[in-house]
Amino acid sequence: VDIRKSSETYGKCFSMELDACRGQYLYIPKGFAHGFLSLEDNTIVNYAQTSGYSKEHDYGIAYNSIGFNWNINQPIISGRDLAFEPLEKFKSPF
User: Fold this and answer.
1) Interval 13-30: pLDDT, tens
2) How many Å apart are CA 12 and CA 50, to the nearest integer?
C-alpha cells in the first residue's frame, strides 16, 4: 500500500503470490506498507530490513481499510493487527 500522502498512487495496493518453491522474494521500499496472508498452516515468513525493530515505531493499517479483496471467509487475524487504525486515520511519516 502506498502511504506517501503526496503520491498520486496514495492508498493504492496490489497483491502477488509468493512461493518458496520458486525462490521468490519481494522488495518493499520506504513509503509503502505491507501485509501478508498465508494460504497454508505453519507458514514461515522471513524479513530483511534496513533497521532494527523498535516497539515505539511499530504501527500499521487496518487490513480491511485498503479495499483489498481477501477472498477468505474467516481469516485469523492477530489482536495486534485488529487494533490498527484504518488508512484514512493513519498518520503517514512519509
Assistant:
1) 999 998 888 988 899 999
2) 23
